[in-house]
Amino acid sequence: MKQIELFCKVVDNYGDAGVCGRLARQLAAEHGHAIRLWIDKPEVLAELRIALPASIKVEGWNESFAVPPDFGDVVLEAFSCGTPESVMTHMKAQPKQPVWLNVEYLSTEEWAVGCNMVPSTHPRTGLVQHFVFPGFWPGTAGLNREAGLLEQRDAYIATLPRHTGLRLSLFCYKWAPTEPLLKALAAHSQPITLLMPHNLLPELTAPAGNLKIERFQFLPQAEYDHLLWSCDLNLVRGEDSFVRANWAGKPLIWQAYPEEQNQHAAKIAGFLKRYTANLAAANAETLALAHEVWILPGLDAAPVWARLLNELPALSAHAKAYATELAQQPDLAGQLASWIEQQRIRT
To answer: What pTM does this model have?
Structure first.
């Protein structure tokens, strides 16, 4: 068992803490590592109510980080948060360099395959760091996926009573063009229940028609999974909810965080290329149009949403098959554990 020092900074609400919490828990529970999760805002991790085993210690940190005497021999830097100077000095002084990995943000594009686990020499210290690229494509570092997750999902869905109409979940950024979406939902032939967080766009109200909006309080990670599993369509954002929506095996629309020079559009295109590879061309076009109107306000979006709703049966069958196929790839924690073990054998 190796002691892993995992560094995390909270940048995007709960996403960074959520991803690191999941990763730490899986490395400990499934691969037997002792984890010390250094996070600059421990209170955010506490709000997520992640059940962590006793082999994980959570500590706060800042730029004036002091290396403890029992510092481990594996350093994971999450999302290029910056390994503290004191840690690099400590590693440089060791007779054998600790394993130093930088787990990057999730990449949806195929180029990540060529970048995954590529070594880089730090210009000032001469230490070697390997960059880990989580992603959807074979050859990337994979995604967070606990052992037996899809089986747990299917067992949970089997216990759910049949619901009339459609259930949708909405988790988006505040600038999402929601008005055309709500209009299309209200005009749909079936009753629709839209589930969304209590503090997200509180001014939203359902137009007259077949739409009902239900608000929910903050959910622990496991319960948010249950919500995604119980819906017919999930609109998600960022990274953690996006990955969990993929494992839900239900149709999804992803809102990527806006970036300069429209880089987020390239990320969405990279995801759709992988996601729709085995999907009928007409259904793939519908998904592409829905993502387009979701990131480009001002387009005539209501007809696109209506088209998407009508194609949900075909999209649902595809989403479940895609999740099953995606789960054949090694998961992120498993690949990291294997890499760390290889480094131990080599040294």
So the answer is: 0.95
16 is catalytic: yes
CATH code, domain with 165: 3.40.50.2000
Domain housing 248? 149-326
147 contacts: CB under 8 Å, gap ≥ 6: 30
Given a cut of 70, whether residue 315 has pLDDT beyond it is: yes
Q: In whole angstroms, give the CA distance from residue 239 to residue 144.
A: 11
Residue at 343: amino acid letter? Q
Least confident of 10-19, 178-187, 238-247, 313-322: 10-19
Q: In terms of domains, do 159 and 285 share one?
A: yes
Residue 233's pLDDT is: 98
pLDDT at 44 over 60: yes
In terms of domains, do 136 and 158 share one?
A: no
Tell me the per-residue pLDDT of 63-120, one tens digit each, with 9 for 90 and over. 889 999 999 999 999 998 999 999 999 999 999 999 999 999 999 999 999 999 999 9
Q: Indicate whether 310 and 339 sit together in one domain.
A: no
> How many Cα neighbours within 13 Å face the side chain of 323?
25
- The two structure tokens encoding residue 222: 């496991």
239 is catalytic: yes
CATH code of the domain containing 63:
3.40.50
- Which of 109, 232, 239, 240 is flagged as catalytic? 239
User: How many distinct structural domains can be found in the chain?
Assistant: 2
Task: Give me the catalytic one of 5, 16, 40, 311.
Answer: 16
